[in-house]
Amino acid sequence: xxxxxxxxxxGSVLLLLLQLLSPTSAFFPxxxxxxxxxxxxxxxxxxxxxxxxxxxxLFLERPPPGRPPLRLEDFLGxxxxxxxxxxxxxxxGSPSRRFRAALGEVSRANAAQDFLPTSRNDPDLHFDAERxxxxxxxxxxxxxxxxxxxxAGDHALARQRLGAALHALQQDFYSHSNWVELGQQRPHPHLxxxxxxxxxxxxxxxxxxxxxxxxxxxxxLLGFTRLTxxxxxxxxxxxxxxxxxxxxxxxxxxxxxxxxxNKDSTAPGFSPHHTLHLQAAELALLASIQAFGLLRSRLGDxxxxxxxxxxxxxxxxxxxxxxxxxxxxxNAAKIQARHIVEQRRGGPMEPGHxxxxxxxxPGFGPVFTTSDPDxxxxxxxxxxxxxxxxxxxxxxxxxxxALLHTPPLSDIFVFTDASPKDAFLTxxxxxxxxxxxxxxxxxxxxxxxxxxxxxxxxxxxxxxxxPYEVVALASGGxxxxxxxxxxxxxxxxxxxxTADLVAxxxxxxxxxxxxxxxxxxxxxLRRVTVRIHGEVRSFWIxxxxxxxxxQEEGQGSLGHxxxxxxxxxxxxNDPPQTGTWEIQVTAEGNTxxxxxxxxxxxxxxxFGIPVEDGPHPGLYPVTQPVAxxxxxxxxxxxxxxxxxxxxxxxxxxxxxxxxGVPGGAELGRVPLEPSGAPERGLLVASLPPPLxxxxxxxxxxxxxxxxxxxxxxxxxxxxxxxxxxxxxxxxPAGFLAPGSKAPLSLRIASFSGPRDLDLRTWVNAxxxxxxxxxxxxxxxxxxxxxxxxLEVPESAAxxxxxxxxxxxxxxxxxxxxxxxxxxxxxxLGPDPQDQLAVPAHSSGPVLTKASPTLPPSPLVTRxxxxxxxxxxPWWGTVAGVLLLLGLASW
Length: 890
Ligand SMILES: *[C@@H]1O[C@H](CO)[C@@H](O)[C@H](O)[C@H]1NC(C)=O
Ligand SMILES: *[C@@H]1O[C@H](CO)[C@@H](O)[C@H](O)[C@H]1NC(C)=O
Ligand SMILES: *[C@@H]1O[C@H](CO)[C@@H](O)[C@H](O)[C@H]1NC(C)=O
Ligand SMILES: *[C@@H]1O[C@H](CO)[C@@H](O)[C@H](O)[C@H]1NC(C)=O
Fold this sequence. Notes:
Elements: H1 8-20, H2 43-61, H3 82-90, H4 97-112, H5 117-120, H6 132-151, H7 155-176, H8 277-307, E1 316-321, H9 327-344, E2 354-360, E3 363-364, E4 368-370, H10 373-382, H11 395-405, E5 411-416, H12 426-436, E6 439-445, H13 466-475, E7 479-482, H14 487-490, H15 492-498, E8 501-503, E9 517-521, E10 526-542, E11 548-549, E12 554-555, E13 559-564, E14 567-572, E15 579-598, E16 602-611, E17 618-622, E18 632-638, E19 652-660, E20 666-671, E21 673-674, E22 682-686, E23 698-705, E24 711-715, E25 726-730, E26 740-750, E27 755-763, E28 768-771, E29 775-778, E30 782-792, E31 801-810, E32 819-826, H16 862-865, H17 873-884
Parallel strand pairs: 1-2, 1-5, 5-6, 6-7
Antiparallel strand pairs: 2-3, 2-4, 8-15, 9-15, 10-11, 10-14, 10-15, 12-13, 13-14, 16-17, 16-18, 18-22, 19-20, 19-23, 21-22, 23-24, 25-26, 26-30, 27-29, 27-31, 28-30, 31-32
Bound molecules: 2-acetamido-2-deoxy-beta-D-glucopyranose (4 copies).
InterPro entries: GBD_Hemicentin/VWA7, HMCN1-like_VWA, Ig_VWA7, VWA7, VWA7_4, VWA7_N, vWFA_dom_sf
Domain VWA7 beta-sandwich: 602-720
Main location: secreted
């Protein structure tokens, strides 16, 4: 079939997509892969291209308040980039990192379907083995879960389920079935609609494929008009006359009829129908756009924006101690919140999400979350400091609750004057903060005059705040000690953080007596602030021209200095001079220095383990590098086009430096290889093997040059750690039904010598959780499998999310830090009716309906979103979207 019937616009999108792929990138799951299939379109490419297409659509339909509307012509015929879209819509320099991180979550969940033990071999999840009806049921189920999770406000889970759905939709249907070979040039019209027939399916006895002994099998499908798909491996076994998936890892393809039909890549060795790869990818892109469009229409524009974090603004998340002594702190939090809300109201930097968790001995919570600044303000205002409590408080439990409800890449502020009673949670909370990439800052007011107000059972240990230090360090935040009279001023750090400041790397990273601290300012930085905190005797700051300024308060030659007790803040004048700056501090005890600045040029990072065997080689996404396993580091630079312009030389990052934390010793320096077109900002490096035996945390620092050849440095906000073992926790393929017992599977493997481990499990709901693996001894290269059973009570709240946590802790004398795995699962009623169901006449009269009224609140309730009958405004949008897609013939 000639490939020329492809709609023009789409063809060019794909062409551009292809241009972005480097010759070595290939195969399906994600950017890194085998050398074998240059020019293949990956799941990640498709997911991003589709999300950007729908985001642009949204931007075009909702002109930005106070800014010129976007014009489609400006974007046609070029690859869509998140930075460009953000600069055009929210204004130049608007950071796109949250949006890109959200897309990354979807893409990684998508890729994980090919690697996780519970999903990689399940034919239903991949449209293999002619299980097309089952595949569709799973696909629609995953999309429905994504929808419900988003409506319930759990966007992490929603993105995961969306990734799973897109995986099935993209690769699996269009690449594994013969839809393309049947001459179809549009996505399957009924794939997303569970009530409609899939149509003409090949029956049990129908032979579908002829024998093919070549790698490439263009004509092996028997002249035949029914829909079928290939069998893979040995389960289920291939009946006589049926097609195989094909490719070198598919055992079934060596049995007659030999060969296969997959279109996963452009490589004949993997894909007997490689010549149809691009056609399959085109349909997969259209189908993905449709799926995003469907979610947008169900969630409304605000809900959809939250699902993909289509905002430059961060969220505001407070954990507040409400014991009697906390009046001043609570007031400080209120003042900050009010200030931020008022200053940013209606603008692009207005926080889109607010979280509040109170705690008061002995309780904590409940968590309050909203996207409405007024109700946040009201809730905060109702908080009063009442009664006395014991000194230690359940502060880490409260923080854990906040972490479970705060979007990734956010700052969380804990206001307290007490140490934690639940210090046993320290590691788990630190791991969760790392997984969520949230920075935690503790504002601790220690006031001796308070001794009478707090009932104290024992003499306080000077180390009692240590758990806060551990969590702050793990998350990239800090612990700021202050006093009552200063808390209001010190709390202005809250405003700084929500203004999206990045921390600049310091050399050395911690204060060494007699040595200056050095940092580099580049031309892309604004609002540089220096914070010094401790028993400072004196300090000075010197710019590259040799101008210096001391600790005097007020305006100096370089900037403005404010002092609140032991906390100093120096705001440098804009624009700061570029080059090398120095800070010299003379101080007692533990003094910290932190330099922050505003910039759109920043980066996200991920880790992946190259998996070369199996049907879909690629990078298996992991949250941490694993000791002894070759691990790749993926860097995604954001803000390369802060003004949305593409002219001129781009900044370029060439190396990543790995440093021990907190000492700063250089552990390695690895070159970064661009993956794909430079404007996309994707870089890859192999972590050096010696690093993978490091026990301590390490920090990532990116080195490069700007368009003018001047030095650029950026530091990751949080340190990373090498996990001593690989810990994989995966759930059932679908949701949790009340009254059921759900099996979870756990795999633990050591690649760095023998390990003796204890395993602990938790669930953040009162569900029973049992495991057949509580202790394990692993030899080098050995794995153990465990089964967990989660009992979901009849009374479990529908549409609620539970988090299961597993920790593996070393039993050796020299304890290795625990490794954690987190799994989110959705409790859902068994009734899938109406969720995504479509009335039979969907392209009928509803088409003419006016566009829907957008729900005032992003949290569309289930009752409101349900229905699915003609006259429901939802259908108006779907029909509208379909029209836009040129698919009105449905
Ligand atoms: C978005 O995708 C549709 C095809 O579904 C295409 O017609 C349109 O041109 C795309 N938009 C852009 C800006 O590429
Ligand atoms: C573990 O597996 C790796 C890779 O297969 C191999 O190189 C190594 O020798 C193995 N080590 C041991 C102790 O078995
Ligand atoms: C736990 O149960 C699973 C599934 O029944 C089994 O595969 C695994 O080997 C068991 N693990 C242990 C340690 O008994
Ligand atoms: C458990 O964690 C999830 C987030 O993953 C959250 O949505 C849910 O509300 C939590 N449940 C409870 C009871 O806190």
